[in-house]
Predict the 3D structure of the following.
Amino acid sequence: MEAVIERLSDYELQRGKPMPNTIHGAIQANLIFELTSRYRQSYRILSEVTLATEPDGSTPDVLLYPSFPLDYLSVPAAKRSDAPLLCIEIQSPSQSMESMIEKTILYFAFGVQSCWIVVPSLQAVLVYSRPGQYHFFHGEDTLRDPGAGIELPLPGIFV
């Protein structure tokens, strides 16, 4: 029997994570919409910005920084060296929960104050306030993240 060798796409090689599927993309868009609708004045909501985490950098699906103006005349660094307040990761079918938890540990070591793991198959979000400590939100819950000052009804994320 011949072994099947699965080749990684350029996206996966460059970002070190699986290529998003339709569900991942919809949830990411919904999160950005919900966060922007409610918190645009307080936060700069970014998508897929690479952080200068060690050893190779990491690219969360969604990031929140305190609000700042964009300087369209300068070229930003390829990797941000300042920690966001919040990193959000959306689990892909090929990612283990262990690998998702490892990302939260990496982000906290970088200086992030809060991390969310979105689990599409459960329509749930784990909100980490530090490594190993999280609250689980699902169904009709309203997600509450006191560290970031965020409240979001989950039905808007999993539409």
Remarks:
- The radius of gyration is 16 Å.
